[in-house]
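go over this:
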Amino acid sequence: MRKVILASNNPHKLEEIKEILKDFNYELLTMSEAGLVDFDIVEDGSTFEENSLIKAKAVLSELGEITIADDSGLMVDYLDGEPGIFSARYAGENVSYEANNKKLLSVLDGVSFLDRKARFVSVITMLFPSGDEIVARGEIEGNIALTESGENGFGYDPIFYLPEFKKTFAELTSDEKNDVSHRARALKILKEKLQQRNE
């Protein structure tokens, strides 16, 4: 079994990625599980692709193992793509998911539901010690809900509404979310590319 280090300590991301990559002979570990504790990565890219690559390169250079990194966020059309790459710190550094959600709902206060079109974006980069690189991008379209709803998921899930399900991401089951989420779509593309490599 080959070790793959996730350039994150987010348990939600770890579970989602583990589920999608379970068919491969990989042992997926977070940075801290791999011994990289209090490792700070400066994400100073201007796109999801750049930040995903920055994270993967930083961990690979430290540990020398296959590394997988995800950079994801929410883009709201009415706000010209904000919060975008700043999604995790939209309301400030080291704030709660709830604080980010409250800020976004406040900024969109008075904007009609139909004008709240948005998309979740995930870019996953997998780097190999050989220098090989796989990049996969997944997106899902929806709307920003008027209020929070649902207990599942994390981040902006309680306010990201999917018209086809008539539910927010946070109201979906894990299986439903793993079928349609931006990260799931990116991971499926990654999986196809890995299969082509005969990994």
